[in-house]
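Please predict the structure of the following assembly.
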Amino acid sequence: MSAKNAFYAQSGGVTAVINASACGVIETARKHPDKIANVYAGRNGIIGALTEDLIDTSQESSADIAALRHTPSGGFGSCRFKLKGLEESKREYERLIEVFKAHNIGYFFYNGGGDSADTCYKVSQLSEKMGFPVQAIHVPKTVDNDLPITDNCPGFGSVAKYIAVSTLEASFDVRSMAATSTKIFVLEVMGRHAGWIAAACGLVEDNKIPVVVLFPEVEFDQEKFLAQVDEKVKEHGFCTIVVSEGTHWPDGRFLAEQGTRDSFGHAQLGGAAPVVANMIKEALGYKFHWAVADYLQRAARHLSSASDVEQAYALGKAAVEMALEGHNSIMPTVVRKSSAPYEWEIGRAPLSEVANVEKMMPMEFITEDGFGITSACKEYLYPLIQGEAYPPYNKNGMPEYVTLKGASVPRKLDSFEL
Amino acid sequence: MSAKNAFYAQSGGVTAVINASACGVIETARKHPDKIANVYAGRNGIIGALTEDLIDTSQESSADIAALRHTPSGGFGSCRFKLKGLEESKREYERLIEVFKAHNIGYFFYNGGGDSADTCYKVSQLSEKMGFPVQAIHVPKTVDNDLPITDNCPGFGSVAKYIAVSTLEASFDVRSMAATSTKIFVLEVMGRHAGWIAAACGLVEDNKIPVVVLFPEVEFDQEKFLAQVDEKVKEHGFCTIVVSEGTHWPDGRFLAEQGTRDSFGHAQLGGAAPVVANMIKEALGYKFHWAVADYLQRAARHLSSASDVEQAYALGKAAVEMALEGHNSIMPTVVRKSSAPYEWEIGRAPLSEVANVEKMMPMEFITEDGFGITSACKEYLYPLIQGEAYPPYNKNGMPEYVTLKGASVPRKLDSFEL
């Protein structure tokens, strides 16, 4: 069998460690030039494949590829472009195969969450049918930690570490000020559907911080919430509140959709944190501060967890190795062997079982009152934030993140309208 | 001369490194038991002195005092309690001296910004007059970097590093997404009057990030601002915007005071970032994300600059040494000898020249268009964010920040109504 090329693309919201997976894919592929001639990356994700806008990764130096391991964001660009069913998006799937054929691409490594797992699965099915079989391997990535079968998803551990540490630090701050000033600190974190990231803030309880967590999994009960906060302030002098962006009222409206209008009558400037903070001020009179972490949390490579970086790399590496072993339509996974000490190994899951399945937080991870996490949850979370994997810094005190050259592969086909 | 006790208090908003100064004070005092019998700390700042609520730091282990060096927040508690003029706040000043006398306190180390420098100055004047002379030394601290004479203030360098790195990381993130999704990232940072923190974000320009900075020193010009943003998006595909909380319209109104009302008609939920983000969306149509760093920035000990931690400690140490040399009514300062390589030494400033003077950002640090920083500003900033001084982490992956015992010194006086 003569060597084929590989195609790699990043999908959806980027993370602090998705580039570590890219690094794992490319470094491993480079060790097998007899089987993988070159790795082409999609510029801005799958759109790069559809528009035949491919990046020639062989033009990137070993040092730059190695630097991807400690560089946050998507080094090749990403996109939120969802391919639908095989019939509905037939034109797009056929174009993908056409591009793969034109560039002798025999391996498809797609690095993303649920949607990209589904696309990956469909490509493997279709390519076979179309007589140009491509081995499609999905590399898991999502800060939301919502992929099934794998114990956890690369990207999540680093957000969890950053958010847990930041919550601890801000809580120490408000504790210092609480006697005469700020008594409430509200932090808004990502999580539309799943409260995994918010759960990580619950870890600060082990540092004796009074914390109330608002999960998207639990309908917001204003009265119960205010009573909880008041009780904690009365007991500890202060209280930290963590609110998932997806926290919602019983009728499904997000907390952030408070009907807020600016002076021009424009709707809602957004943010569940200010809504919660003002609600507390209104009802209980406590002085507050609030923060919205947004992109800072998923980009915070400066505080990634070592286990997350290691797994992100290992899953990229395993994807290539599995492809070389002849596997198709699978996703390498993290299998937890033990929590203390933390031991894990690489497993694999068929994409048919990954696509379109969302893993929610088990209800036994949330305390009965709905405002905290259980010891089972802590046991699950701690291994994922273990270890510090700092990036290198230059002499000016800034991290040395790499920007790739991104040289284009010459086009061979007609253009394609998205 | 028999040994006297020292009093130490933390004032105003706390920082990532104010405890490093406390560590410098206490460790140095412990080396001179012949002159300083014990260090009493004010619980919750100067209020602790007024209410005779003193913490006996001799009850804290050497290990716990050493751990203050890497623990953010105010380990003894702080407050925002401003003593006014000697006449106006006569009762409070006299109470301070009474408490100092009752506890044989001959040294007063006050760790804070402009207000505490003023209080420190007045205590040294009054104590002399009242026949119980106290050596009052001010230890500088403020994330706002607005104290005069000293080249910079402990606390600022760490915020600057955290904010510069976070801006870089989030900018890499939005760059990855910009082709088909988010093109604008807005980060709100602290700074009511001075734009030092916002200026630090301007450093990302050296990483080829298109950035527009809004300073409190520059009146907001919406038209010019939107044109700048649009130009950068058209050229680079995305744009990062940093807005100081103190950014204001020509008439003085803060951007955050947009007359925003919730559905109950309550005023303004706050945040200049969402105002700016929505303004861009409205005018230019670009998809945005925004973050408000708030306490996260000043508490982020996990990414403190090594030079900041070193200076915070050195100034606390110098304060004690200067007191032992007989100095009074002064503040140890940072004197910059050279920017590249960075060299500095400890100097001192008379409190009469520090009290009530606010150091603004020099206009030659802001570019002519008002949206960026000059190379002179970069030369000033880089040394302050040099080096990484990471805290230790436990096996679970959380930093080992210390919570002190905080044992009380027995009271000797009648209670005092604040």
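Residues 178 and 270 of chain A are 27 Å apart (CA to CA). Chain A has 13 helices and eleven strands.
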